[in-house]
Amino acid sequence: MGAPGPTAATGEIVWVAGATGLTGRALVGQLLNDPQVRQVVALVRRAGGLLVQGAARPDSKLVECVVDYAEPDAGLAAVPAPAVLYVCLGTTLRVAGSQAAFRKVDFDAVLTVARAAQARGVQHVGVVSALGADAGSRVFYSRVKGEMEAALQGLNLPSLHIVRPSFLLGDRQERRIGEALGIAAVQLLRPALIGPLAQYRGVEVQTVAAALRAGAHLRSAGGLRVSQSEQLASLVLEQGT
Known about the structure:
8 helices; Rossmann fold; 18% strand; alpha/beta
């Protein structure tokens, strides 16, 4: 088990960037139910878009902060400094509409909010990347994810946890035909994905969220931790998150 965290009376303040996305919503719900967390600051681009998953008291310690990731300081100035930042920002090429627009979200916005949290004295940053992230990849998506990881490492944060999930399984607010077919295919092929292929199994978004929280429990060791998709469930079990 990890070292005990703060008590409810002195609980931590946590920022969640990308709080309206699939992983972000799951993470916010878990954090609101965590007695070690005093306040959850959900960083969103538009007010009122946050639908919390599984929170017993969604209004008890949740603060919604509208942020322009191009110039975040104005929005973040009014919220308390975080002990932990979780970054769940991400889009797709189809949604973004261009490679440049994709990079603004998956690289620029991630680095901007990490720098803002670092300037406020953040102790730990947990970020959702992707399976196959590689700055040298010929695949644009994987290359941007890898470049984002490398840039975060270059910030020399006190503690950095990168999770690289495979296909995310969960309740999406919008279900596209392609995603529905992808989920069906992942579930159908799951029994065959063993050994080295296990990394390609779909992973429940609640597991990804819990793994992010588990990484924060281990931050006293400092430095970098990278968790591959097939390692996330074990990390959650080890830390009891």
